[in-house]
Amino acid sequence: MSIAESMEKQAEEFRSRYSAIREQIGRVIVGHDDIVHGVLACMFIGGHCLLEGVPGLGKTLLVRTLAQCLDLKFNRIQFTPDLMPADILGTNMVVETPEGRRIFEFQKGPIFTQICLADEINRATPKTQSAMLETMQEFTVTIGGLKYELEKPFFVLATQNPIEQEGTYPLPEAQLDRFLFKLVVGYSSRDELATIVDRTTRGVLVHPEKVMDGREILKWQQLIREVILAQHVQDYIVRLTLATHAGGPLALPITNQYLRWGSSPRGAQTLALAAKVRALLEGRYNVSFEDVRRVYLPALRHRVILNFEAQAEGIDTDHVLLEILERLPEKADQKAPVAAVVAK
């Protein structure tokens, strides 16, 4: 079997398995197709996801449902102002041995799992939020000079409420940058809301089936990295990232007007990997410009910082990024803008 045939067979199997897990999630979650895809894309890439939306939209339910579809360890951490780092990571405890000696023994915290639901993550203090930095980037926990490896695959799926800000602490930029996607969960449509009411008020509980384990997820993570990224598409990703840097050589007028800081290199990495997932799901083994545009907003909206002028005028990051996406040509020698097709 040639390399092309092998790739085609694996890609077809990936689409089939992806559809299977989407189907199980759809038994519980109504609508929010872009949000579900975003969460699954983060999982298959091997990154973390931040879900932002008002209470009651099903953010926590989505994460719980995903955990039920996967044969992985799952823990939920409710973030509160009095939560301490040891409550997440664990701590050394004094225990007595059978010989009567007392020794320190490390008791693992809830972060030692494979899917971690960080519920209302912005309610914890900066000290507690900082406990997540090493786990999200290095997949390790360091306590008392000893380093402990987290079992892979490992994902942090966090939720936060954008409205109620009393008693909350904005996530530091270093932590935001470690999230692969920031997904904004919106309201359900009329038909979707009717379906939700039907499903939840008749006393019928639906339990999704487990369809995938950790070994298979790691296999798909490797396959995604083998998708071809042509040089001209990669250059488009690089220019989209550099276009967010105010005062830079590729900055657009709206960038200099409204942005204070632009995306880090993690933004470009996310665009490349997320676009590869889109390509596989479309039956292609190479990334297109449209694949990049579809993942642009969730990949970069949390990596840029607005300046005072944007805040005073009520401009949000999505507005600035969409303007950049519309005005930046696909190829460096083009001048005409392209139509923007993006996901939430």
What share of the residues lie within helices? 40-55%
By CATH reckoning, the class of the largest domain would read Alpha Beta
The largest β sheet comes out as: 5 strands, parallel
Q: Beta-strand level of the residues, as a percent range? A: 15-25%
User: What is the subunit organization of this protein?
Assistant: single chain
Mean pLDDT: 87
CATH superfamily of the largest domain: P-loop containing nucleotide triphosphate hydrolases
Structural overview:
- The longest helix is centred in the first third of the chain and has 24 residues, at 3-26.
- The chain has 16 helices and 13 strands.
- Strands 3-6-9-1-10 form a 5-stranded parallel sheet. A two-stranded parallel ribbon has the order 2-11.
- The two termini are 39 Å apart.
- α2 (33-45) packs across α12 (265-281) and α10 packs across α12 (265-281).
- The radius of gyration is 22 Å and the shape is globular.
- The protein has 344 residues and is an alpha/beta fold.
- A hairpin with a 5-residue loop joins β4 and β5.
- The relative contact order is 0.14.
- The protein folds into 2 domains: 3-80 and 113-220, Rossmann fold (3-Layer(aba) Sandwich); 227-327, Helicase, Ruva Protein, domain 3 (Orthogonal Bundle), CATH 1.10.8.
Kindly list the characteristics that best describe this protein:
17% strand, globular, alpha/beta, Helicase, Ruva Protein, domain 3, 13 strands, 5-stranded parallel β-sheet, two-stranded parallel ribbon, 16 helices, single chain, Rossmann fold
